[in-house]
Amino acid sequence: MKRPLSFALSAALVLTGTAGLGIGTAGSAAAASTVTIDLLSINDFHGRISADGVVAGAAVLAGAVNHYSALNPDTRLVSAGDNIGASTFTSFIQKDKPTIDVLNTMGLTASALGNHEFDRGRADVDGRVRTAAAFPYLAANLYDTATGSPAYQQYSISVIDGVRVGFIGAVTEQLPSLVTAGSLSGLEVRSVVPEVNAVADRLSDGDPADGEADVVVLLVHEGAATPAEASSTDASAFGRIVTGADANVDAIVSGHTHQSYAHSISVASWPTTLKRPVIQAGEYGETIGHLTLVVDGATHQPQSMAAELVPLTNPDKSPRFTPDPKVAAIVSDAEAYAAIPGSVRVGMITADLNKARQSDGSDNRGGESSLGNFVADAQLAATADIGTQIAFMNPGGMRVNLTYASTSAGDPDGNVTYSEANAVQPFASTLVALDLTGAQLAAALEQQWQPTGTGRPFLKLGVSRGFQYTYDPTAARGSRIVRMTLNGVAIGASSIYRVVANKYLADGGDNFTTFAGGTNRSDTGRIDLDSMISFFTAHPTVSPDSGQRAVGVRLAGGSASGIAPGETVTLTLSSLLFSGGEVPARTVEVLYRGSVIGRSIIDPTIVDTTDEVGRATVSAVLPGDGEVGEAALTVRVPGTGTSVEVPLRVRAAAPLAGGALTDGNAQSYSSVSVTPASAPAGTVVQVNVAGHDGRTVTIVGYGPQLPLATAVVTGGHVSVRLPAGYAPGPHPLAVYAGDGSLVGWAPVTVTSRERV
């Protein structure tokens, strides 16, 4: 509510990022004339009801609520939204009913609506979700387009030891871009700040008819991009909320960006000793926010506010709080229920889809894998309707292989069940779409080579079908990516490409910071497990793609200006094979203008921590009868689908000396003849060149060596005039292609000109 500037403050705001088991709880020495309220907060829980070591699970979360409630009965739990949606299989398979049940059981007081609450559309929120929830879902900035009225409850009031605490809800203004088309039917998303301020002012105007609150807390499903305080006060959407919220908003509990921070932000009209807490508690219930509000018992004015973040597990991953038995029972029942649909078939595979392996059989996150590429294919297919072009998958996001062999009598060879699909990607990660330039794509791929000193020196990204690149593993850091193509077209450095990746990768996880710099970011409203299941629905039987989408190439030969026909070109190749147990191909071929010019045996030895398995060196003489300028070699591994182009520049070879024309090269690339075979000097003859119509060639005469013509072969020949100075006798006429190589030659006999 509106506070007079002269009210006394008993303590300054204390705000920490450390993890305690309680700050300023009722058990501390609070004065009898004050009321201490402990608000616990979660955000972006996403149905993580089961414990996995990092995620504490719902039972431990409820145990934390029990712990604080035992210390202070004036404790309440609130949420900044995304309680459901993008959930793990245990909750996902029951449309998140187990998650709502555990939140009901632990006494959630109020929650903002998040974008993932709308994953199944407005009708699902208005019907099933709100009916199942024993707590109010709040959204001050969502309006019904038909009535012009708020579509949802804008606020709720909790009377805590005589203090009226108002909770206002709001959801990100980007909501329309975060859900599938049609999910927000009949809803208008308005700006957060004016709608929240209007509600806060009504709750603070002294009119009992408006509800009235002594303390106002904003629960907003929007958040800072980074934990830095500057990200909460900048010109971003969240920064505008923090700086634009008026003086009647006492504290802000945020979400959506899965960040961890606890800030104290000055408010212009407040005393300098009192600052507004702004908090977000990470994700998945790994951490809870803890706000302690000390309120004057008579005036109900806030005297002090403190905030901290409290992890729910110890460093050894053991729970910090005693699990609540009622919630534990709900989770246990959900896990048992999930085991039944977990055995349901979602698709079939014809062979293993594997992660990469080290030489000792352990996982190699540095190797390209059929599984990683398959997951990327599925994620691209799941988001192609919103314009994505390339998908990337981080290797650590895949936990197990999809194996062909039967695991039991009820699981035939090739069968893929829900639980098996979920085991591959157990994180239920949201898929995020974003724009990257071609230069940023290259930068992201360069970041596969991890910073010096990291535990894994190289992390190989899975990429979707149609996207390929070559790299030089010996080049300097930052310059290893040689060439990228999308559907055979070279990637342009300044062109914009729509990319999709799971949220972890999109946020710059595993040091892939370039993704975090992408623009036009959008939460697609789809999760990784859903994308795989949808892919199997569209393609009931899946075969591994045995083609490599990245190949190591180092090209040598020729000079700085290019390679001329007849010179030797050498390609040092790597990453020609997978390492996950697939049967290795034996040979690699190099083609030029569609013809094989060289082959080599592939070395299948695994190179640990890298993607260098499948190495070969191919040397070949560059054929002639081509053109100068940009050209390409093709590296192909027969039987696998691996095929990449290696650009090279062809420079012209010098014409041969007369003594180099022999019977052996008279028809190097074509049959050449002269009509007539005999003619006087100074007359025109036809040089016949088979199979070269439309090609530009150069005719060189010998004895002496002179260029006679450069012309397009038309009707199978080129007309040239014999030099007037040619002496009677045989003179070779040689045909050279655009690249300077000898096409062939034939003699013409120069006869004496008859005297009249």
Automatic annotation (TrEMBL):
A GO term from the CC aspect: outer membrane-bounded periplasmic space
Gene3D superfamilies in the record: 3.60.21.10, 5'-Nucleotidase, C-terminal domain (3.90.780.10)
Annotated Calcineurin-like phosphoesterase domain residues: 42-259
UniProt entry tagged with the keyword Nucleotide-binding: yes
Molecular function GO labels: 5'-nucleotidase activity; nucleotide binding; UDP-sugar diphosphatase activity
InterPro entries, A to Z: 5'-Nucleotdase_C (IPR008334), 5'-Nucleotdase_C_sf (IPR036907), 5_nucleotidase/apyrase (IPR006179), Calcineurin-like_PHP (IPR004843), Metallo-depent_PP-like (IPR029052)
Keywords: Hydrolase, Nucleotide-binding, Signal
Residue ranges of domain 5'-Nucleotidase C-terminal in the record: 356-516
BP GO terms, sorted: nucleotide catabolic process
Source superkingdom: Bacteria
Keyword Nucleotide-binding in annotation: yes
Sequence similarity: Belongs to the 5'-nucleotidase family.
Protein name: Bifunctional metallophosphatase/5'-nucleotidase
Source organism per UniProt: Subtercola boreus
